[in-house]
């Protein structure tokens, strides 16, 4: 199991995509490698390169203090668990706590909303070809928001009664 940790000055960086380095640790909390963060170049393609890097390292868990909601959603969609951490904690504490499922971020709405994204009119507003995969506005909508309610269903609990009654 590989755990990715965005790092700044030997600690957890406060923001995932703005961290100078990404450290990759194994299940024994040993540092495997440290890689410069490709997302620092800015733009959708640089952030996609970060996602590809995390996938190439076969990362199971990413530890973050702050992360944008779109990046969080992409990590979750890729099947990567995201654990909430604090830059005040030691790396050893962060790695140990990353296994605690109560610290997991499970929905993109738990990330920070991007003010810049909204100002630009959303991703791919002008060209439609930045490569981030969000060219259609409805793709960002949560899955449950697109499901039609089925109010005409009636639940039957008759099979839950104890036998013989």
From TrEMBL:
Pfam families: Nitro_FeMo-Co (PF02579). Keywords: Nitrogen fixation. The lineage of its organism: Bacteria, Pseudomonadati, Pseudomonadota, Gammaproteobacteria, Alteromonadales. Gene3D superfamilies: Dinitrogenase iron-molybdenum cofactor biosynthesis domain (3.30.420.130). It comes from the Bacteria. This is Dinitrogenase iron-molybdenum cofactor biosynthesis domain-containing protein. Residues 10-95 form the Dinitrogenase iron-molybdenum cofactor biosynthesis domain.
